[in-house]
């Protein structure tokens, strides 16, 4: 899979997702399904969107003992998603087990990427709550390298980190980056943002874009603008 725009379908129900995606007549965007929608609608939402021809990033961020993650990944693999993810904090062994679970009998599998540290975790909570006494940037890179060591395909990271991740983990190690905004758009609650064009220049492989597309007056045009800036 090459560079692509993934639309974060952060809606609370299947009806809202279908109403949104029905606007797209010519394109079948790559979509991200998160916990809220998946827990509300179950695996059927994945099956339906696959049937409609969308590629799917199922963003469930698994984190449990290796055996449980392995078995759960096997279930997600049968759903035929294209990308799924987990928390690198679950350890290298958990990530290896996840890969095993994800791999189908014929050797194929969805891409598997890791969340390093959530962007909602700051240096203070890293130290106070998690008792991790290293600078955030080092922790993020260490977790990315753990993901690489476990055999994963890449990480979710800020577009600002994508260049360093490629330097340390190789150019084929995927960087999937949220926090993308148009130069003339609203930033909202995202703190460290980049435009699709800047994300491309720094080497993001996939950008995850939610509200700049879903809340745009013309979502199809906003999606096309993202694709023009990021992919063309
Ligand atoms: O609407 P917006 O473009 O901010 O949506 C970004 C998407 O990426 C949301 O689904 C959000 O949960 C997700 N995300 C993020 N920052 C991270 C990880 C995931 O914004 N560090």
Characterise this structure.
The protein has 232 residues and is an alpha/beta fold. The chain has a single domain, classed as Alpha-Beta Barrel (TIM Barrel), CATH 3.20.20. It is 44% helix and 16% strand. The protein has 11 helices and 8 strands. The protein has helices at residues 14-21, 35-41, 43-51, 66-78, 92-102, 123-128, 136-150, 159-169, 196-202, 211-214, 219-230; strands at 4-8, 30-34, 56-62, 83-87, 111-115, 154-156, 174-177, 206-209. The chain has an 8-stranded parallel beta barrel, surrounded by 6 helices. The longest helix is centred in the middle third of the chain and has 15 residues, at 136-150. The protein is globular and about 45 Å long. The model has no long low-confidence stretch (mean pLDDT 96). Bound molecules: cytidine-5'-monophosphate.
